[in-house]
């Protein structure tokens, strides 16, 4: 199975680069399934039904999220009825929405997507490791699903790396989101699970993690806020992780970073 995981989509610039580049990537990489983190897609904070529908129309099959998933309260009116949109699995029982889902990929295979959120330097919610363990035990790789992808939305690289090793041999890919900067550590772990600490963001990188740089600079240099942070609107880079899985084991046989457009150095796998 050929899977593309797209990093955090930040505002209109991020949505525009996805709309422009994803159709070509789908064709050139012969993708079977596309996942993207959309927790910042609507004006940099949360997502809406209209924004989610636009992203599906671009060719994204499933959207994950993170700590900003409820920033647009509209999401509470439709997330229970939308199995293509996930919120972190380790929110308390009774929280609207779902944290995992099994979909059918274009090659006919079953893919399980799990979305969890870290706890270091973030909200004190339920244990992400216990949540992922429960999902992996309930849906074994190659028995319940032909591929398994875990979005670990977390601040600390140590917590993301620990999740990668925790899932090694039981998932096809563990990828970090939230930091908005692509890391240079794409690898296949000893047990066969592909891993990258952070997929990066679909955003204008002449910014501070995708946000217009003036307000963050004001807050850092003067300890004062001049207003709400807003997404930067310049040409954006699409950042993602490409994974190929072995048809017999469901584990990774290839992992590559993807960067297209904008300011970052391009990186596109060749087939």
Model description:
With 271 residues, the chain is α/β, with parallel strands linked by helices. The chain is 22% helix and 24% strand. The protein has five helices and 13 strands. The chain has a six-stranded mixed sheet with strand order 5-6-7-8-10-9, covered by helices on one side. A five-stranded mixed sheet has the order 4-3-1-12-13. The mean pLDDT is 96.
What topology does this entry show?
Blueprint: E1 2-6, E2 8-9, H1 11-28, E3 33-37, H2 49-58, E4 62-64, E5 100-104, E6 110-117, H3 128-138, E7 147-153, H4 157-167, E8 173-177, E9 187-188, E10 194-196, E11 201-202, H5 214-222, E12 238-245, E13 252-260
Parallel strand pairs: 1-3, 2-11, 3-4, 6-7, 7-8, 8-10
Antiparallel strand pairs: 1-12, 5-6, 9-10, 12-13
